[in-house]
Please model this.
Amino acid sequence: MKKLLFFALFALWGTQALAAVNIVATTSSMGMLSRTVGADLVKVTELAPPDRDVHTLQIRPSMLQALRQAQLVVSIGAELEQSWLTPAIEGAANPKILPNTNGYFEAAAQVSLMDVKTNADRSQGDVHPLGNPHIQLDPVRMADVALALAERLAKLDANNAARYRQNAQQFKADVNAKMPQWQKLAANSTGVLLYHKDANYLLSRFNIPLLAYIEPLAGVPPTASHILSLVQQFRGKKGVILHTVYQGNAGIAQLSQQLGWKHTALPLEPANNSNSQAYFKLIEQWLTAAH
Ligand SMILES: [Zn+2]
Model:
């Protein structure tokens, strides 16, 4: 009897291990969402470290290997990862994860985007031709992405559809429960000067004034004259400068010094292999730094 039970358990464990959906997430926020919705029904590999600019990531052999075995790619989308993800997917030659199949998921395609342009213009070097792709710091949009991701996982693994939907609903409920606390944390900000258009969704969600950008155009580094014009525009006023760890630029230090404004470097992504609690902490970090 004991032996039989052991074999039954082993068989169960065996089918569960086989059933885990193999997900490759481009970033750690997408990995967090995949893990939150998929729980023990998925296996998640994250491609980008949280301190890198996801606009321009280098393709590594380990990425191709992960993509070769993937059943689902979860990306931020709206061309954010295009420069490396498209060739990486082509290089992996895995028909399951090609764009326009059930194995390819873009978070940005599930929600409304800011800054959508009617005719995409890349000629000036704008790296956001389809609208602002950096949706991951908006927890409300992320909750909607979680619901959409649950539906996608339900298509790939119909037997566990109810569990995916339940996990996504739980994430949405957790976000809703946190909102009053976050709104309190965001209140009375004097305003934020961003380096890149990468925290717009967060600022907009929590009604934090967005003063200007250090980049004259998304992806284009500031000239000395652009920095000077920002100094002239904001001299004598209050605000803070928020940027990411990889935007270490002389212009930031110069602005901070000349305006007397604090500047803080923050990641746009939680640590690799994070859970939702770590993501919520990242939101709090940004909201706290906006003062
Ligand atoms: Zn960008």
